[in-house]
Design goal:
Elements lengths: L8 E5 L7 H5 L26 E6 L2 E5 L6 E5 L4 E4 L5 H14 L4 E5 L19 E5 H12 L14 E3 L3 E6 L2 E6 L11 E4 L4 E5 L19 H13 L4 E4 L4 E2 L1 H23 L4 H7 L13 H18 L1
Parallel strand pairs: 1-9, 5-6, 6-7, 7-8, 12-13
Antiparallel strand pairs: 2-3, 3-4, 4-5, 9-10, 10-11, 11-12, 13-14
C-alpha cells in the first residue's frame, strides 16, 4: 500500500466527463451590490430527495440524497463511523434510519470534513456523547459561526471533541483504519478528507465537487487555488479507485485526473498572461470567461489570479 504520505502518527480510538480548461475556469468580474428591482428572480425551492444508502465496498456506504452533502458510513467492529452529518436534522435522522437497516450497531463517531452548512446542522440528530472529530481549523471556524449565531452553526453540545492538528493522521476507529487528510488549504482553510486504505475509498469532502465545472474556493475562509491543486495531486497519488465527492458524486481516479489537469491548464495560462503584463480584465477576455452569479468571488481562476499576482509582487520585493 502506497499512501504517498509523510510518516503517519497512529491514533487508536475505541468504543466527468472531461470539460475543457477554458470552460472550467469560471473567471468572472466581482459582484456589484444589487439595486432595487435588479437581480435574477428568486428560485423555487427544489424538492429534497429522500436519503438512500449505497454499498461501496466492505461495510463502507454512502448515504446519498437528503439536504446537504453525502454522509460516509463505515460499519466497524462495535459501532458505526459517520463522515459529515447532512444539512438538516431531518436528513440526518433519515441517515440514521438507513444505517439501522444495514446494521444494529450504534453510531459512535462523526468525522467532520469542514465547516460548511452541507454537513454541520445535522449533528443535532446524533446521540449526545458522540465522538466528533475535526481538524483544529474547522473547530475555530465553527466557534466563529457559533459566536455569529450563524444558520449553519453546530449545536452547542455537538462541537468537535477530538481535534486533529496534523495534516495527515492515521486513525483506528471501530477497528477500521482511516487516514485523516488535511494536505493544504483548498475549498477553505480547514477542508479535510478521509481515506480508507484497506477499502481504497476516499471521502473527499468539499475539496472535490463535480459541479460547478470549476473548483469553488473561499478566499474569505483562507481557501487556496494552489493548495487545491496540491490536495488533488495527493488524492490521485493515493492507492484508491473510488472517490466520493462532497455533494455525493462518485468518481474514478481518471475523472479526478481530468479535473486537476483542466485547472492546471487554467492556472498556467493565467500565469503566462500575468507574466506578459495582462490585466485581470484582459485575462478574463482571453479565457472567454463570464460572470457566474452564484460564485462571483469564489472562482478558482479569480483566486488563482490573486495568488499569482501576490507571488510575483513578493518575488520582486525580495
Amino acid at each position: 500500500m502506497n499512501l504517498n504520505l509523510m510518516p503517519l502518527v497512529v491514533v487508536v480510538i475505541c468504543a466527468l466527463p472531461t470539460v475543457s480548461a477554458v470552460a472550467q475556469n469560471g473567471l468572472g468580474p466581482p459582484p456589484t451590490a444589487a439595486q432595487p428591482g435588479e437581480g435574477a428572480p428568486a428560485r423555487a425551492a427544489r424538492p429534497v430527495p429522500p436519503v438512500t444508502i449505497k454499498l461501496l465496498r466492505d461495510n463502507v456506504y454512502a448515504a446519498l440524497g437528503g439536504a446537504g452533502g453525502v454522509s460516509g458510513v463505515i460499519v466497524g467492529e462495535k459501532g458505526v463511523v459517520v463522515i459529515d452529518a447532512k444539512q438538516t436534522p431531518d436528513s440526518a435522522a433519515q441517515t440514521i434510519a438507513r444505517i439501522g437497516e444495514v446494521t444494529p450497531k450504534p453510531v459512535t463517531t462523526i468525522i467532520l470534513t469542514g465547516n460548511g452548512g452541507e454537513g454541520i446542522p445535522g449533528l443535532a440528530a446524533y446521540p449526545a456523547g458522540s465522538r466528533i472529530i475535526a481538524h483544529a481549523y474547522t473547530e475555530k471556524a465553527l466557534e466563529k459561526l457559533a459566536a455569529e449565531n450563524a444558520r449553519n452553526r453546530a449545536p452547542p453540545d455537538k462541537m468537535p471533541n477530538v481535534l486533529i492538528k496534523d495534516d495527515r493522521k492515521l486513525l483506528n476507529l471501530e477497528g477500521v483504519r482511516m487516514v485523516f487528510l488535511h494536505i493544504a488549504p483548498s475549498h477553505t482553510l480547514g477542508e479535510s478528507s478521509v481515506y480508507l486504505p484497506d477499502q481504497r475509498i476516499v471521502f473527499t469532502g468539499y475539496v472535490a465537487q463535480a459541479r460547478p465545472d470549476f473548483p469553488v474556493i473561499h478566499p474569505d475562509q483562507d481557501g487556496s487555488a494552489i493548495g487545491w491543486m496540491k490536495f488533488m495531486k495527493a488524492f490521485i497519488n493515493l492507492d484508491a479507485d473510488i472517490y466520493v465527492l462532497g455533494p455525493g458524486d462518485i468518481w474514478t481516479k481518471a475523472q479526478m485526473e481530468q479535473r486537476l489537469a483542466a485547472q492546471q491548464a487554467v492556472y498556467e495560462q493565467i500565469k503566462s498572461l500575468v507574466a506578459a503584463g495582462k490585466s485581470r480584465d484582459e485575462i478574463r477576455t482571453a479565457l472567454h470567461s463570464g460572470l457566474n452569479g452564484r460564485y462571483p468571488n469564489y472562482l478558482f481562476s479569480e483566486v488563482a489570479y490573486d495568488e499569482i499576482v501576490k507571488a510575483g509582487s513578493s518575488a520582486k520585493s525580495q
